[in-house]
């Protein structure tokens, strides 16, 4: 394997990583959207609809998908003669010291809310899957420029990857304590399905000044909980039902919220969502490795393209390289249960009722997960047309992304309500967007408070 092949391999893995992981399920526009019972997922004290009984249609109650990364397609590609190419030089110019990638999918399997005078009770089952990753600029610089321009000094790259798949069962209660204040909360029982937590993944390369050899060091530490039902046996995946019914990874979380009317027109609210943990026991283990070797390249001077050549002189150098790589990533596995957090969201919001049917709102969301903090801010206008329809539109700042227009709508046809929303409709311009999220669902709504 030549250095060029190593660069190409790393580049391919990096592009794949960007493609599949492109963090946060913002959906801030949902917070003040009228006639929307799903707003309780952002603050259990918020009441935006007047129905006595709301039932999320099974499997259609709410599907949410989010993507976010540090690069847009146009920032890492070049078009030449109608052909799209990966442009590593452009990517190197755009890359920051730390670059992030995030993907999340949630599915409301069941969602029921019932109101009685000043009390509201709720029950929901939700599936959650997320993939969070980050990498430093050095890996991009190495792939773009190669190792020769960086000779004589070590190049350290690191990756951070966190994958988690779990299901939550939530019981909620909120109460209008007075005309001004509403308190709400949820208790969530969590069941973990699988987890991958890369606590450390570092690769260090140092090229000698005379470019005759490269010293390679690799160190990693990973926590895994991957049920046997996820593994390949005889090139076949085991019964997925066994995976979806995985037990023994349990956890808990809480949602807390308060909504306060300063006066009839101005309301202030704050909430904390998903404050909790999961204890991983099923097939839980810690995997680590730490090794190094000096690669002096291959001596191919005696290779001849002749029939009947002896295999050993040619295969030995490659076999030695393979043996060194095996030593470099000599994994040590220890069965070890572990505890992990889940993404926690904090919301601060303020609303101003301009009229009975129109409300302006501002929502600030702070997300904390895996030693990372991210922020998104949304300014919105929200129109309610009786109980028949609602329309929301706004502007959202997500981390360092400023080109995000939010829209959402809900329409009620008899007892059936359909809703659709996104915090960045401009993501339809795929080439120039690094943020995308969408949420859609259907509810059955009965009665009126």
What does it look like?
With 449 residues, the protein is mainly beta. The chain has one domain. The protein has a 19-stranded antiparallel beta sheet that branches. Helix 3 runs antiparallel to helix 4. The longest helix has 18 residues. The radius of gyration is 26 Å and the shape is globular. About 8% of the residues have low confidence.
Percentage of residues in helical conformation = 10-25%
Number of helices: 6
Number of strand elements: 23
Shape descriptor reads globular
Structural class assignment: mainly beta
Q: What is the domain total for the residues?
A: 1
How much of the sequence lies in strands comes to over 45%
- Integer average pLDDT: 82
The biggest beta sheet is recorded as: 19 strands, antiparallel
- Rg, rounded, reads 26 Å
Order of helices and strands: HEEHEEHEEHEEEEEHEEEHEEEEEEEEE
Poorly predicted regions are 5-25, 303-315
């Amino acid at each position: 394997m030549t250095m060029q092949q190593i660069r190409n391999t790393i580049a391919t893995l990096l592009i794949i990583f960007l493609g599949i992981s492109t963090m946060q399920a913002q959906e801030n526009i949902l917070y003040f959207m009228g006639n929307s019972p799903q707003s309780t997922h952002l603050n259990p004290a918020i009441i935006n609809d007047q129905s006595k009984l709301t039932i999320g249609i099974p499997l259609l109650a709410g599907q949410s998908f989010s993507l976010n990364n540090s690069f847009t397609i146009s920032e890492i590609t070049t078009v030449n003669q109608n052909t799209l190419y990966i442009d590593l030089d452009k990517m190197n110019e755009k890359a920051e010291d730390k670059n992030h990638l995030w993907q999340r999918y949630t599915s409301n399997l069941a969602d029921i809310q019932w109101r009685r005078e000043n009390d509201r009770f709720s029950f929901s089952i939700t599936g959650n899957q997320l993939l969070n990753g980050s990498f430093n600029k050095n890996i991009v610089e190495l792939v773009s420029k190669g190792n020769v321009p960086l000779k004589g000094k070590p190049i350290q790259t690191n990756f951070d990857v966190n994958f988690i798949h779990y299901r939550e069962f939530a019981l909620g209660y909120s109460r209008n304590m007075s005309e001004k204040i509403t308190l709400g909360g949820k208790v969530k029982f969590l069941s973990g399905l699988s987890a991958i937590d890369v606590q450390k993944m570092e690769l260090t390369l140092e090229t000698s000044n005379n470019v005759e050899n490269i010293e390679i060091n690799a160190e990693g530490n990973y926590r895994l909980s991957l049920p046997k039902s996820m593994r390949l046996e005889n090139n076949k995946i085991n019964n997925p039902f066994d995976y979806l019914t995985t037990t023994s990874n349990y956890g808990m979380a809480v949602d807390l919220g308060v909504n306060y009317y300063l006066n009839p027109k101005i309301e202030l609210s704050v909430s904390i969502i998903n404050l909790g943990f999961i204890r991983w026991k099923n097939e839980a283990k810690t995997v680590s490795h730490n090794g190094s070797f000096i690669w002096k390249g291959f001596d191919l001077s005696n290779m001849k393209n002749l029939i009947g050549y002896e295999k050993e002189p040619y295969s030995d150098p490659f076999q030695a390289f393979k043996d060194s790589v095996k030593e470099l990533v000599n994994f040590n596995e220890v069965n070890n249960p572990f505890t992990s957090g889940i993404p926690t969201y904090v919301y601060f919001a303020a609303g101003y009722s301009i009229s009975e049917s129109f409300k302006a709102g501002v929502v600030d969301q702070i997300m904390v997960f895996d030693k990372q903090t991210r922020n998104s801010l949304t300014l919105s206008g929200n129109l309610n047309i009786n109980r028949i329809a609602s329309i929301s539109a706004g502007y959202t700042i997500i981390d360092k992304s400023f080109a995000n227009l939010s829209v959402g709508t809900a329409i009620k046809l008899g007892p059936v309500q359909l809703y659709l929303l996104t915090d960045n409709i401009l993501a339809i311009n795929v080439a120039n967007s690094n943020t995308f999220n969408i949420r859609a669902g259907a509810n059955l709504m009965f009665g009126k408070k």
